[in-house]
Design the sequence.
């Protein structure tokens, strides 16, 4: 299910996926990269590992993408089909994805 949400004038993001107690939003950036925000809406039970498929974010290349956690300022590595983030209860993780080209 896809929903478009207007954050402020001229800035739009796409809700890519809503799972059990989490939501994923994505937006292409001007330089060809993508921003993804993962919300853990679960208030208890500790951190969750949430897996997100690249194609759900609009990244369709066969080479995959590199990911960087913007809040932790940490490179997460290269992913070909999906990446996984650990998100605290009621927490959020913001990822920058750079599609790889041949």
Sequence:
């Amino acid at each position: 299910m896809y929903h478009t949400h207007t954050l402020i004038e001229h800035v739009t993001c796409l809700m890519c996926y809503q799972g059990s107690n989490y939501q994923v939003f994505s937006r292409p950036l001007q330089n060809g990269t993508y921003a993804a925000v993962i919300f853990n809406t679960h208030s208890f039970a500790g951190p969750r590992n949430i897996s997100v498929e690249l194609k759900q974010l609009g990244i369709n290349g066969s080479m995959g993408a590199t990911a960087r956690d913007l809040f932790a300022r940490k490179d997460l590595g290269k992913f070909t089909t999906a990446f996984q983030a650990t998100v605290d209860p009621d927490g959020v993780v913001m990822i920058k994805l750079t599609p790889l080209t041949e």
Q: What stands out?
A: Residues 1-11 have pLDDT under 50 and may be disordered. The chain has no helices and nine strands.
